[in-house]
Here is the input.
Amino acid sequence: MEENSANFTVAMPVALPPRRSTLEKLKLRLKETFFPDEPLRQFKNQPWKSRVILGAQYIFPVLEWAPQYTLQLLKSDVVSGLTIASLAIPQGISYAKLASLPPIVGLYSSFVPPLIYGVLGSSRDVAVGPVSIASMIMGSMLRQQVSPLKDPILYLQLAFSSTFFAGIFQASLGFLRLGFLIDFLSKATLIGFMAGAAIIVSLQQLKSLLGIQHFTTKMAILPVLTSVFQNIHEWSWQTILMGICFLVFLLLARHISTKRPKLFWVSACAPLASVILSTLLVFAFQAQNHGITVIGKLEEGLNPPSWNMLRLHGTCLGLVVKTGLVTGIISLTEGIAVGRTFAALKKYQVDGNKEMIAIGMMNIVGSSTSCYVTTGAFSRSAVNHNAGCKTALSNVVMAVTVMVTLLFLMPLFHYTPNLVLGAIIITAVVGLIDLPAAAHIWKVDKFDFLVMLCAFFGVLFVSVQDGLAIAVGVSVLKMVMQVTRPKILVLGNIGGSDCYRDVHHYRDAAAVPGFLILSVAAPINFVNATYLKERVLRLVCDENSKELKFVILDLSGVSAIDTNGVSFFRDMRMALENKNLELVLVNPLGDVVEKLERGDDGTAYSLFLSVAQAVASLMQTMK
Here is the structure.
């Protein structure tokens, strides 16, 4: 063996990491953390004119596809835009009611934000507009302090202000490339949260489907059911009959489109058809005089400015910031998930940071034009995709259609019954309950299933935001447990080969006499160094063999160490020497070797490239 460094003894030359300055290391670490996709690589070795063009295309994705746009693409986008508009108009009115906002605000939110996304969005399939879950969360959080009936102006101001802060938060994540923060909402968390929220949203619509006038504003399941049965005297059989008919019609249309995707237009057109038919029935039979409530008169015209309604200071600032943060996270998560899903189907890339900036700018501009929080809606995006959209221009076509509606067609919605809006919402949120995904989580990871249940029951029995917080807390606890209690595998040799595998997983893996071979599969730092030391020493004691001479640590899974990690190796070396054992390190990564060398205190470590090499070399030493 030969000396390779002051504190490493190696059997074969082992390359130590190249010397780098502290600034170089910091730049490399920041690049790996915040720029894993290297967004500036396309500018390398390009003339300045090309760099200007590429830069403009990076900021405004519309410049990428607009120069190659053709009439054939336009035909596809017009068809898909008109199709999603037929869905967006009734959904916009319905979701605004869900957020306790005037119905017209839902249509405003389906006009301006899609225009912004058409310029800044990087997805071809995402259809922009209000969504049910974000609408429900905004309504439930704002109603805790302000009544939309007693003080509608203040409530509207808080809604616009919350949208502004949601946009600021979303755009900031994109500009600062901090999108990994939303990954704390795991798949299990989202499945449980969405299912619980879908049930709460559906139960809330019983107010419209039963004709109840006095209904709770709370979002937990017990207050909602209590309110339903305490007001049986307000139930209207006319409303119930009409509501059930339209709910069955919408669910049947959804079922047909689910079973036969080519008939996507059935579920896409069903909401607007329901609105038209129910409005005609109410008008023909004057049903508003027989217990069926209607929307009433809606304002005409395009979005009025609302920047003067933003409340960026005062006693309600904490409420709007918290509401903006929660709705911003939920809508951002849904929008990016939708974009990535359909991008994978069509085999193109969606830049997550661009999407965050686009969604954030939509909400910032929207808050100043009488819109509330919007994002990429899954139901509308699915219709947009199935309708054959080619570019983001389909959003522009949808926005123009909504504009025509705002200018000329608003009086037609005067007799639209509230019950049909409730039926539309229920039909939209039913798809959020994903039982096959829940069963798959149970099969794969029981702890993830527990996280899902925490989100589900937290939303049902506590509140929407608290249920989400509980689930995120449990997810973080799981992550902390995995970091603080990493696995240590006992390796054995598979006969007739140089392979060393977990003896508890491979039947053919047998321990090598005189050696305890361990593998650590986690960074070694201040949160787990003590645990790892205790665990290794316990395994040494359990070995209980007088033949034991060497403890080999396979460090190929240790990506990094800190000061406590350096102390761990020093303490392990000393503890094993007291037992007449030698510590041997195998295949440490560059960062580990560098910090062990930098923390040199005279301790020498035996270093090998592989476990097989270490065993072979040390056996020769024993002989």
About this structure: The chain has a mean pLDDT of 86. Residues 486-622 form a domain with the Transcription Regulator spoIIAA fold (CATH 3.30.750.24).
